[in-house]
Write a structure and sequence with these properties.
By secondary structure, the chain is of the alpha+beta class. The protein contains 9 helices and 17 strands. Helix content is 26%, strand content 25%.
Length: 354
């Protein structure tokens, strides 16, 4: 991966963007798209849309959501401790003891998620899963009024970790679900610079996927695409405790994953696989026997229906602060999409069997 691209990925991971709080990431995404797109816009929902070849009659939408899971302050007690609830699917087992940032009106406030030490737990309490309402954030305040001078009910909270490079071209960090997808979409637009494309390409960094695919729904309605490809992360099966019998077999570093199932237009799915084989781009395949919990679901049922597909970046430890992905898989995902778009024939029909 180019140093410039890795720096951009690190920048994306460093920006807090829980669902409903994506505004801070918009300018970074727009700056990245500016060098490659003919048009760039952001809508009232928070989606950023970069367009190449906007005059084309056939429109292809790429969507990678830029929001992440997080927390929200629900209550401040008399001693200044903050109680919270989840924004998206947060596992309480992995957030206890974490460093956090409370994103307040006056700027980020550092805190830690505390709980009773193991030494003080009764025997019957040990080993039991902690409930979210039993956890709290300590920002160092002595009382409620002092805490309220810095934070407020309704403020968003994110785990305070960034990106770290590991062995074998792997990286770890929070929020790869789905900064990986937003990154692949913007990298695809970059790869298309100076190349002839016969269709309109609409690269969307969508919002609020973690609470119901909401940004994909509104942006797809606006764009009215003929083809839509969601880029997200998928469950890797190459770590202890995973079960490929349930999720399919998927390994980091062996290429992005293409999917087969009712959420995937079969014609589009075959074309993506054919492009990967033609360009000798490594890829994996997993089955999706029902609607996926990704932007591909919302895009497929937009208006009168869209030919949809899903491209996934294999991810270990999803929805934890230590998600792990491969930089090689990111590169190959954007390469596959770029080559697919260069080869795309606007006359292609996507009605199965015709």
């Amino acid at each position: 991966m180019q140093k410039d691209s890795l720096d951009f990925l690190r920048q994306l991971i460093g920006i807090a963007s829980p669902s409903g709080f994506e505004w801070g990431i918009q300018e970074v995404l727009k700056r990245r798209m500016r060098a490659t797109c003919d048009e760039i816009r952001a809508d009232v929902h928070g989606n950023v849309i970069g367009v190449i070849n906007p005059q084309a009659k056939v429109r292809v939408m790429l969507s990678g959501h830029c929001d992440e899971i997080g927390l929200m302050i629900m209550h401040i007690d008399d001693r200044g401790y903050l109680y919270f609830s989840s924004v998206g699917g947060v596992d309480t087992a992995v957030i206890s003891g974490q460093r956090v940032k409370v994103h307040a009106a006056g700027g980020a406030v550092f805190g830690v998620i505390g709980r009773k030490p193991i030494h003080l737990l009764e025997q019957e309490e040990r080993g039991k899963p902690v409930k979210m309402h039993e956890l709290f954030i300590d920002i160092g305040a002595k009382k409620k009024k002092e805490a309220e001078r810095h934070v407020a009910v309704g403020d968003y909270v994110t785990i305070d970790v960034g990106l770290e490079v590991m062995m074998n071209n792997l990286v770890a960090g929070r929020g790869f679900d789905d900064r990986a997808g937003a990154f692949v979409v913007t990298e695809t637009l970059r790869r298309l610079k100076g190349r002839k494309v016969k269709v309109g390409v609409y690269g969307v960094t969508s919002v609020q996927e973690e609470i119901g695919l909401r940004g994909a729904q509104t942006s797809a309605f606006s764009i009215d695409p003929h083809v839509g490809i969601a880029v997200d992360v998928g469950f890797a099966s190459d770590f202890p405790g995973s079960d490929p019998k349930r999720t399919g077999e998927c390994h980091l570093g062996k290429g992005p994953t293409l999917h087969r199932g009712p959420n995937i237009n079969p014609v589009l799915g075959r074309l993506l696989e054919a492009t990967a084989k033609k360009r000798k781009i490594p890829f994996q395949v997993t089955a999706e026997p029902r609607a996926t919990g990704t932007d591909a679901n919302a895009i497929q049922v937009n208006r009168a229906g869209v030919a949809a597909a899903l491209l996934s970046v294999p991810n270990r430890y999803m929805h934890t602060p230590v998600e792990v992905i491969s930089l090689d898989d990111l590169d190959n995902a954007s390469k596959l999409l770029a080559e697919f778009l260069v080869d795309f024939d606007p006359a292609q029909k996507f009605i199965p069997g015709m």
